[in-house]
Amino acid sequence: MPERMVGKQAPRFEMDAVMANKEFGKVSLEENMKNDKWTVLFFYPMDFTFVCPTEITAMSDRYDEFEDLDAEVIGVSTDTIHTHLAWINTDRKDNGLGDLKYPLAADTNHVVSRDYGVLIEEEGVALRGLYIINPEGELMYSVVNHNNIGRDVDETLRVLQALQTGGLCPANWKPGQKTL
Predict the structure, then answer these.
(1) What is the DSSP letter of 93?
(2) For residue 132, which of 104, 112, 157 has the smallest C-alpha distance?
(3) So which residues are the catalytic ones?
(4) For residue 116, how many other CB atoms are within 10 A of its CB?
(5) Largest Cα–Cα separation, the chain
(6) Which one of 11, 48, 121, 141 has the minimum C-beta count within 10 Å?
């Protein structure tokens, strides 16, 4: 039986990434924690696929909202930084990503995908896992879905805002509503 992760310290990571300025760099949970930032870490299966660009560009299009909530967004697949850059340099109308406002990290050795429990070992790709980690490194939210289904940016933002209230949020809670 898999061990629970929510409510515990998130697995630490440092990965090579293509940064928003299209340069190669590194992303790490420790850096986000040092900067007192929330981390929205999401895994996707592969570059140059069909559902993935819809999610990745939707997150980028709403990045300012995450930034306003002191959150850093990091997208991760098991592809290389070179493949990420080629996909970013491909126009959206051609199933590419175009410019992104956050980094895409390369988990080529599969360590981070395995640590977060989303690696499909026999395929060497990740499931669609999304994790919200607070500035102290505690994993506060985890959701994993089948690779055929894209995630909802509105829901990710809603959950992040709910977590940041520090209160008890009832079902269907929306930002601005009272907590319990």
Answers:
(1) G
(2) 157
(3) 52
(4) 24
(5) 47
(6) 121
- Residue among 141, 144, 113, 115 nearest 126 (CA): 113
Residue 149: count other Cβ atoms within 10 Å of its Cβ.
10
Q: What share of the chain is helix, strand, coil (3-state, %, to 5)?
A: 30, 25, 45
Q: Other CB atoms closer than 10 Å to residue 63's CB: what's the count?
A: 19
Q: How far out from the chain centre does Cα 156 lie?
A: 10
Closest to 46 measured CA to CA, from 32, 60, 31, 56: 56
DSSP H helical ranges for 21-152: 29-34, 52-61, 63-68, 81-88, 111-115
Tens-place pLDDT, residues 45-91:
999 999 999 999 999 999 999 999 999 999 999 999 999 999 999 99
Domain boundaries, the chain: 8-165
Report, at the CATH architecture level, how domain 8-165 is classified.
Answer: 3-Layer(aba) Sandwich (3.40)
List the beta bridge partners of residue 72.
39
Strand partners, 142: 131
- Using a cut of 0.90, tell me whether the model's pTM lies above it: yes
Decide if 32 contacts 136 (C-beta within 8 A).
no
Token readout for 62 is 């709403």
Q: Which whole-number Å values give the CA distances from 41 to 21, 74, 144, 149, in the listed order?
A: 19, 5, 12, 17
